[in-house]
Amino acid sequence: MKYKFAKKICTAALAAIVADTAFADENERILALEKQLKKVRAEVDTLNGEFSDLYTNTPKEQKLTLGGYGEIHANFVEGGDDMIDIHRLVMYVGYDFTDWIKLTSEVELEHAYVSSSSGGEISIEQLYIDFMLADSVNIRAGRVLAPMGIINQKHEPTLFYGVERPNVDKYIIPTTWSLDGAGLFGYPLSWLSYELYAAAGLDGSGFSAKEGIRGGRIKERQGLNDPALTGRMDFYPFVDADLPADQALRLGVSGYYGGTDNQNKGGSIGTNNAFTMLSTDFEYDISRLHLRGVIALGENSHADQLAAGVGEQIFGWYLEGGVSIMPDGWKNGKLKEADLIPFVRLEEYDTQYKMPDGTTATGEYNRNEITIGANFLLTPNFVVKMDCQFQTLENNRSDINTRYNCGLGWVFK
After folding, report:
1. 15 and 146 together in one domain
2. What's the CATH code of the domain at 359?
3. What is the extent of the structural domain holding 41?
4. DSSP label at 206?
5. Are 232 and 314 contained in the same domain?
6. Residues near 79 by Cβ (< 8 Å), separated by ≥ 6?
């Protein structure tokens, strides 16, 4: 378009030049005409260059990345409060400053509304810079997700079964658990990856008997009075293997150690407690069968210095399996990328697994749970979920707390 427009300009310009010089001396007319032609040619060359740059200089990868995810839940509790909850709306923003300096961010709004009493929340869950140096060693700095368990790092609604996240990932590994710090990550071998961070620690004054360390997460200006070290390693033993059926296996081990004498905006709460957690997890897909599981054990070194009822040890595990049952013949038209996955999950979590000397567990925080449901993925990025949960407490196993959930979840990027 620019080139054709330039030709029209040139034609009009030449016509005007001829008209203006019609009565001038022939030599002067020719010299003036040549000068105008040189000027027009320069302008055309400039336009051609801009037109070419529009294509040849387009970056192969977009520098700015936008995305996000969201969840809407309906919860029905026997003998409790039923509700609809716009649980999360999250926005991702990423930017590649160069091919080796990359920014990642995630901002979350929870429960649709934020006020002093609503329980809603706006927070930055991730905000970090990656310096991509080599496959085996790279640097990450900023707010990162603690590399513990599965769901803390893979918490988008299309990536886990059930409407609500597993309760082990709420009361034992407090998802989502963000840490401010810096560290290394990489993929030194085709079957091995790792992460290792030095970061701000937890606030032990927020630990509780019911929710373990969940209330100890610092979401604003994380104190560095008593810092922490955390990391994980993942192994992929089948990555180079030639196996029958479609099989993929990941085995992970993760750990955390840090003091809990921290506060928001810095400062100290005056305790000597340190918190340690070890966890192992796996994900195994074989053909249409999908299995995953987590075990996590946490320990407070001086639980007697914390709030009453806080456990010396917290412990939890879950095992779940799902099967893709949608026949390939049904995957056409609007459902060409769809999948239906019924699942079952067994989990146990106890925030008073072991108590300090002189205190006794109440039994009400040793919880067992069975969740049965299905994920209906209309596309890989949009899911409809339904499930029912049956929970019993150690101190009253005859009383089953039943909960029914349904929801929508999506990811866009």
Report:
1. no
2. 2.40.160.10
3. 2-55
4. G
5. yes
6. none
Both tokens assigned to 308 = 């009453």
Residue 182 to residue 179: CA distance in whole angstroms: 9
- Tell me what pLDDT residue 25 has: 53
- Does 135 share its domain with 12? no
Domain-ending residue, one of 19, 38, 55: 55
Same domain for 143 and 40, yes or no, is no
- Per residue in 129-161, pLDDT (tens digit) is 999 999 999 999 999 999 999 999 999 999 999
Pair 317, 388 in one domain: yes
> Is there a single domain that holds both residue 32 and residue 141?
no
Q: Give me the chain's average pLDDT, please.
A: 89
Give the whole-number percent of the chain exceeding pLDDT 70.
85
Domain count, the chain: 2
DSSP string for residues in 309-344: T--SEEEEEEEEEEE----GGG--GGGTT-EEEEEE
The tens digit of pLDDT for each residue in 393-403 reads: 988 877 899 99
Same domain, 320 and 216: yes
Query: Cα 268 to chain center, whole Å?
Result: 30
Reference 388, options 124, 114, 26, 76; nearest CA is 76
Instruction: Count Cβ neighbours within 10 Å for each residue of 230-245 and write b for 16 or more, e otherwise.
Output: bbbebbbebeeeeeee
pTM flag (> 0.70) = yes
Helix, strand, coil in percent for the chain, rounding step 5: 15, 50, 35
Structure letter (DSSP) for residue 172: T
Answer for the pair 221, 266: CB distance below 8 angstroms, yes or no: yes
Q: End of a domain among 10, 30, 55?
A: 55
Residue 172 structure tokens: 């034992």
Q: What is the tens place of the pLDDT at every residue in 28-51? A: 666 665 666 666 566 645 555 544
For residue 15, pLDDT beyond 60: no
